[in-house]
């Protein structure tokens, strides 16, 4: 039995990045021998074991053979005769097909170290085309490493395009799409994930709602970048600079989906895009089985982001309605995330990247006024219990109106 450090641990070490997880491949062993040595079996599709002390993953060297469409259409062989080089040959990219011996010597049969030095994402073999998830993984690696200067090799990009043309991406399952997408959204440059998918044509299959934004014009007065797709990428960049949270970045990606369905005869205006965008975001989340918390922020932001932009022009009644819709009493963190996305939206425009966004502080102050109204006291003092909600709303609207009278230039008329 021989074991080698493989994959991301070797790659990240060569890149000078922190090594978080260490995975190992075992050559010349069997499941029975691993169990006898004290390892615990955790693999479902093929033999993977946890070390009895370090709890790191040790997988038997394996070969795979394509037997059907999609991610699950493979048969695996983990015979003890499988060599290290054969195991490395089934990996997606050369930078992930490097192993390290106990003495530190590298085993690099596919020149992954050279591709790391040249900052290139390159497929290991033609077997790349057999698994559509690899398209998502390449795009996710661009999200992780594009800031280091990485690009996709021309021949790899062409393979990805070929896979899209052949319909391989049609076989992607929702769980794997969301797994790779959520990882990319939390990476250094999530916009690079979208760009990579669009470059190979996969964006139209995986996220057609986002792909449809490209080429849709916006008023140059407000959006010097013109293109709605480019604006969305700029907003995603700004959101990433301001927050590492998945929910914020996802909401930034989805905030303007409604612009892709604007009637052609009213372009470049986008009247009503908020409501359409909320419905599109809801459908996208349903299709990809996006977690509820992430979905809720995305839908709310798509529907109400323009209310934040024109917050100072909203009446006390409309401000009260916005606070109620956002549930600022019970979910203050979500409201702050909403404001972060709205600020990213304002800055995600050509020439406005460093702009101020006073609307955020204005709405935080409104929320504080809203919260201070003693709704419990109003409920106790109300004889007709059917009017409690109405009376609380009226009290909150009055409180906001009174606060606004102290703000020069604000509209305090309901």
Question: What does this molecule look like?
Answer:
The chain has about 425 residues and is α+β, with helices and mostly antiparallel strands. The protein has 3 domains: about 1-110, Beta Polymerase, domain 2; about 120-205, Orthogonal Bundle (Hydrophobic Seed Protein); about 210-405, no CATH class. It has 19 helices and 11 strands. It has helices spanning about 10-15, 30-35, 85-90, 110-120, 135-145, 155-165, 175-185, 190-200, 205, 210, 230-240, 245-255, 275-290, 290-310, 315-325, 330-345, 360-370, 375-380, 390-405; strands at about 1-5, 25, 40, 50, 55-60, 65, 75, 100, 105, 120, 150. Strands 3-4-5-2-1-8-9 form a 7-stranded mixed β-sheet. A two-stranded antiparallel sheet has the order 6-7. A hairpin with a 6-residue loop joins strand 3 (about 40) and strand 4 (about 50). Helix 12 (about 245-255) packs across helix 14, helix 14 packs across helix 16 and helix 17 packs across helix 19. The longest helix has 18 residues, at about 290-310. The model has no long low-confidence stretch (mean pLDDT about 90).
Quick synopsis:
This protein is an alpha+beta fold. It has 19 helices and 11 strands.
What's the helix and strand layout?
Elements: E1 2-6, H1 8-15, E2 23-27, H2 31-36, E3 40-41, E4 48-50, E5 57-60, E6 63-66, E7 74-77, H3 84-89, E8 99-100, E9 106-107, H4 112-118, E10 120-121, H5 133-145, E11 151-152, H6 154-165, H7 174-185, H8 190-200, H9 203-206, H10 208-211, H11 228-242, H12 246-254, H13 273-288, H14 292-309, H15 316-326, H16 332-347, H17 358-372, H18 375-381, H19 388-404
Parallel strand pairs: 2-5, 10-11
Antiparallel strand pairs: 1-2, 1-8, 3-4, 4-5, 6-7, 8-9
Helix pairs in contact: 5-7, 5-8, 11-12, 11-16, 12-14, 12-16, 13-14, 14-16, 15-19, 16-17, 17-19
């Amino acid at each position: 039995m021989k074991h080698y450090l493989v994959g991301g641990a070797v790659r990240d070490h060569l890149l000078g990045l922190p090594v978080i997880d260490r995975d190992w491949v075992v050559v010349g062993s069997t499941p029975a021998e691993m169990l006898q040595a004290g390892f615990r079996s955790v693999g479902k599709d093929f033999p993977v074991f946890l070390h009895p002390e370090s709890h790191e993953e040790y997988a038997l060297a394996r070969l795979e053979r394509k037997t059907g469409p999609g991610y699950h259409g493979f048969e695996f062989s983990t015979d003890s005769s499988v060599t290290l080089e054969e195991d490395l040959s089934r990996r997606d990219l050369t930078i992930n097909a490097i192993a390290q011996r106990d003495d530190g010597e590298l085993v690099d049969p596919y020149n992954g170290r050279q591709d790391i030095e040249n900052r290139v994402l390159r497929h290991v073999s033609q077997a790349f085309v057999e698994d559509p998830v690899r398209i998502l993984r390449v795009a996710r690696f661009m999200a992780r490493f594009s800031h280091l200067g990485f690009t996709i090799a021309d021949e790899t990009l062409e393979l990805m395009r070929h896979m899209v043309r052949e319909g391989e991406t049609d076989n992607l399952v929702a769980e794997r799409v969301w797994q790779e997408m959520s990882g990319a959204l939390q990476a250094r440059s999530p916009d690079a994930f979208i760009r990579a998918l669009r470059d190979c044509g996969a964006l139209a299959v995986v996220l057609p709602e986002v792909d449809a934004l490209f080429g849709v014009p916006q008023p140059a007065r407000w959006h010097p970048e013109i293109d709605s797709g480019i604006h969305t990428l700029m907003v995603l960049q700004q959101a990433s600079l301001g927050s590492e949270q998945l929910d914020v970045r996802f909401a930034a990606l989805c905030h303007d989906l409604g612009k892709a369905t604007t009637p052609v005869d009213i372009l470049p205006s986008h009247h009503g895009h908020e409501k359409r965008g909320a419905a599109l975001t809801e459908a996208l989340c349903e299709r990809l089985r996006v977690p509820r918390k992430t979905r809720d922020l995305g839908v709310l932001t798509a529907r109400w982001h323009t209310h934040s932009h024109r917050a100072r022009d909203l009446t006390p009644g409309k401000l009260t309605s916005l606070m109620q819709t956002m549930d600022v009493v019970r979910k203050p963190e979500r409201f702050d995330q909403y404001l972060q996305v709205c600020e990213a939206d304002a800055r995600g425009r050509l020439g406005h990247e460093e702009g101020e966004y006073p609307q955020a502080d204005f709405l935080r102050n409104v929320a504080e006024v809203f919260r201070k109204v003693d709704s419990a006291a109003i409920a106790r003092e109300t004889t007709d219990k059917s009017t409690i909600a109405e009376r609380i709303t009226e009290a909150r609207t009055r409180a906001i109106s009174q606060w606004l009278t102290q703000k020069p230039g604000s509209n305090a008329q309901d």
